[in-house]
């Protein structure tokens, strides 16, 4: 138990750790609000306030979204920012898939050359290759989720802007970040 608490303290001491925790709050509250909206509007309003507060906490340094810029300029800047993010996510996803493919090929070569990975060095190399693949898959999951969120900003549509789509995408991104940033 102490080891888990220690790791949690280390995780939350990092900026990314706090961001992932607050992102989890933001998207859990979005999903909870969607779930109770029709049956309990007063509770849904509280979840909406929690979502907004969490979102503002995460975006405190994005001046275009907290009234610093002219509203017309902020809208354009938000579009450009979301477009640039989405464009970047596509390339990150492609790069991770290329690296995953190269890792699988290297793993096959190692298995063939070391007689099925019998030596301790081969076993350690295989462990590292597989751990790298898991981390890259987590990165792909987070980047796909963030791409969907960026699409919701670029071109609002019923699928990307649906509370469930945004909620699940946000949680996938946050939890993939938790996994990737958790101390070992």
Automatic annotation (TrEMBL):
One of its GO terms (cellular component) is peroxisomal membrane. The keyword DNA repair does not apply. Its main location: membrane. It holds the Pfam family PEX11. It comes from the Eukaryota. Keywords: Membrane, Peroxisome, Peroxisome biogenesis, Transmembrane, Transmembrane helix. The chain crosses the membrane at residues 79-100. GO terms for molecular function: identical protein binding. Belongs to the peroxin-11 family. Homooligomer. Interacts with ARC5 and FIS1B on peroxisomes. This is Peroxisomal biogenesis factor 11 family protein. It comes from Salix udensis.
């Amino acid at each position: 138990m102490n080891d888990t608490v220690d790791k949690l303290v280390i995780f939350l001491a990092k900026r990314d750790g706090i961001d992932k925790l607050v992102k989890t709050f933001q998207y859990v509250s979005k999903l909870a609000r969607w779930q109770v909206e029709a049956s309990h509007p007063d509770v849904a309003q509280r979840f909406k306030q929690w979502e907004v507060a969490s979102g503002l906490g995460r975006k405190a340094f994005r001046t275009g979204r907290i009234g610093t810029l002219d509203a017309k300029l902020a809208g354009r800047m938000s579009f450009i920012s979301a477009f640039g993010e989405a464009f970047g996510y596509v390339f990150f996803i492609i790069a991770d898939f290329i690296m995953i493919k190269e890792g699988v090929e290297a793993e096959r070569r190692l298995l063939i050359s070391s007689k099925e990975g019998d030596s301790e060095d081969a076993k350690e190399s295989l462990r590292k290759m597989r751990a790298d693949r898991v981390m890259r898959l987590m990165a792909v999951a987070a980047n796909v989720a963030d791409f969907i969120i960026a699409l919701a900003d670029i071109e609002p549509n019923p699928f990307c802007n649906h509370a469930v789509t945004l909620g699940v995408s946000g949680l996938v991104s946050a939890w993939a970040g938790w996994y990737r940033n958790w101390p070992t």
